[in-house]
Amino acid sequence: DLGWIVRQAVAHKERETSPDTDNYAYFRQFALKVDDWTEETPPRCEDADAEELLKPIDFDTYLGQIKDSFERLVQGYEAREPQNQMFREVYDALESDKHLLIEAGTGTGKSLGYLIPALYYGIQQGKKIVVSTHTINLQEQLRERDVPLLHQVLPVPFKAAVFKGRGNYLCLRKFEGKVNMQDFVSPGEDRITAAQMIVWLGETERGDQEELNLGNRGGDFWDTVASDTDSCLNRQCPWFKRCFYHRAKQEANLADVVITNHSMLFTDIRADHRLLPSYEHLIVDEAHHLEEVAGKHLGMQVSYFGLLHPLQRLCKDARTGMVHQLKLRLLAEGHERSQAWAEVIEAAVPVFGEVREHWDQMFELLFGLTAAVKDGAETGQPVVRMKSDKPPEGWSYVQTAEANVFAGLNEIVKVLEKLSSEVKDRIDDAALQGLLTDMNGSVKDLARIRDELHGFVRLDDGGTVYWLEANPTYKARSVHLFAVPADVSGQLKQYFFDVKRSVVMTSATLSVQKSFQFACEQLGLEEANRTGRLTAVQLESPFNYRDQALVVIPRNFPGLKGASGDPEFVGALVRSLAETAQETKGRMLVLFTSYRMLRQVYDPLKEALAAAGIQVIGQGVDSGSRSKLTRRFQQRQSSVLLGTSSFWEGVDIPGDALTCLAIIRLPFQPPNHPLLEAKAEMLQKEKQNPFMKLSVPQAVIRFKQGFGRLVRTAQDRGIVLIYDTRVIETYYGKYFLYSLPGPKIEHMHLDQIVPRIREWLGPAEQTDEGAER
């Protein structure tokens, strides 16, 4: 019984003085950290006119002032030549209206490398700069680390804003409605989540989902209270002056630099450029992901729950859902039309059930198509491509089920749109208007899914790749439908490189064997390159890789025969990893391309290392997100971390925590994946070799990302083991090794590896001991 703890806590709170009301704004019974914001446009800088301050300062003087500030504020600061070169290249591209591809490896100081010249150009010229990242992690790093540092070192004040997709912000009106109406789908979990969020409202200034640590069901509750365009009352909303999304949008409009993400760039394009403030200068960090994100956002994706969630929000059963709330409200209003409207709702309720039945039937049929696939390549997830000239057997049944879903959704959408319009015109009640707006948002979701699904089953766009993915464990509910353009280079050219004055694209991995040809082709930059409007620069790494990284390839390691379950390969791998881990005392990250092989290695490796007290952590085997597993690995020094796809990049483990990196297989994408297959077909039509033009460059870029996990600082030193002997046995292996930033590369017999590691690490460890003495 823990009741006594709660009673004591309550008694303690009651004895305390009332909270400091200066820290809160009380509004509609909620205590908020934020107060009203204004739509009036203040001067871009409150302290001084930054533009006028910068005009007499040339770029060299500006850089000199920043360098002086760094030396004063950052102990042991040293100017890095690659970063100095990046300052110049970025500034030149912005000033001369050119596009720039710039590869800058770890240690260059990439984010400051583009922010410092971008702010100088943007403030001096009165131009807004948009910076886009792929990951939330980098976005938060720019907000929390780089921007505050720049506020200290720049000779002029500036404004920076982070602007994310709308679904990241809380809608206070929806949240108030959920709490007041006690409208919870999962009463237990949703009440706890709502309570957590009420406390959070007294602490947050941004209303950003990223600040919350939501439980398993918390994500579902968030979806019902997140801000979205279709259910926004704008200035009619009682919460408008405290709205987190509109505040963030206003801050972006006033900022000198706006930090957003790749997804938002394409969401803005689909929304006819109504979301992001107008901009002509764009900096894309983590640019090697831009093409993939473009495909996702310029195509479509439909999942089982994509329709089920808005459908259930409208009408879950005979009593719950927004249409039932609307009926009760209308009857309570006592309007002369209330009874007629209630009858319209009653007549529509059975249609929801029929749509759900047809939806379930259709997804069972779709899952049946994936069940015929025996192996889902590396992921274990069956993938089936759909072709218009050769649809799978039984496709006509799927089309019939879709026609039934389409008809039912059509009826629901038409009835609710008409009803909503009539009620809005006749009854002017704020709470009712809010309910109708939320309902319209879900109705628009249904209409969008109806249209996307209808387009998918027709399979009639020759430039689009259609496929299904499923998980055998979760069956029909796991089915996803994808329709993605096979080639987005033309659209990237149309939306960015033809219309923006300057686009700077940077990443640690843009080149393949010192060439930017692959990046130019994928991103639609070939014309800019031909006409001299593109500059491509590869910066030298500030690290001494020759002394810091040793790459070892065991030349007599067995090749992998057939699928990833080859016992000879797995046995040899476990033995070698165990011997190496014992020599390095753990501190090892092992990168796989297959979950299946990771699981096969996990148990025998754990057993082999148990006696040495070395812990084995496996992604997907041990619970936790990527960041939690990484934290566990860093906290316990004697450990080996096994990871797949998401660990190949974005994982930062500097210092002694990571001494050895093992790459099990070259990271080729499965050749039978529908998108890769379609791209290969296009290249074959052009009489080009898909393997060399597509598969190898993609794998090289991924390989370079994986290699980049080892050396994160100038002091890091370690070994990279490559167990895939194709790097030394095939004609294409040289592309992988030549693309690395100059480490020492040696291949040797398997039994020579541990002595060589001991020899390589020895001098560094002796030096450390000597320093301690």
Summarize the SSE layout with pairings.
Elements: H1 3-15, E1 25-27, E2 30-32, H2 50-54, H3 59-73, H4 81-95, E3 99-103, H5 110-125, E4 129-133, H6 136-153, E5 160-162, H7 172-181, H8 187-201, H9 218-225, H10 244-254, E6 257-261, H11 262-270, E7 281-284, H12 290-298, E8 300-303, H13 304-314, H14 322-333, H15 338-371, E9 383-386, H16 395-426, H17 430-458, E10 464-469, E11 480-485, H18 489-497, E12 502-507, H19 517-523, H20 526-530, E13 534-538, H21 545-548, E14 549-554, H22 567-584, E15 588-591, H23 595-610, E16 615-618, H24 626-635, E17 639-643, E18 660-663, H25 674-685, H26 690-707, E19 718-722, H27 726-729, H28 733-738, E20 744-748, H29 753-772
Helix pairs in contact: 4-5, 11-12, 13-17, 14-15, 14-17, 15-16, 16-17, 22-23, 22-29, 25-26
Task: Describe this protein's structure.
This protein is an alpha/beta fold and 773 residues long. The chain folds into three domains: 206 residues, P-loop containing nucleotide triphosphate hydrolases (Rossmann fold, 3-Layer(aba) Sandwich); 185 residues, no CATH class; 228 residues, P-loop containing nucleotide triphosphate hydrolases (Rossmann fold), CATH 3.40.50.300. It has 29 helices and 20 strands. The strands form four sheets. Strands 5-6-4-7-12-3-13 form a seven-stranded parallel sheet, sandwiched between helices. It has a seven-stranded parallel sheet with strand order 16-17-15-18-19-14-20, sandwiched between helices. The relative contact order is 0.09.
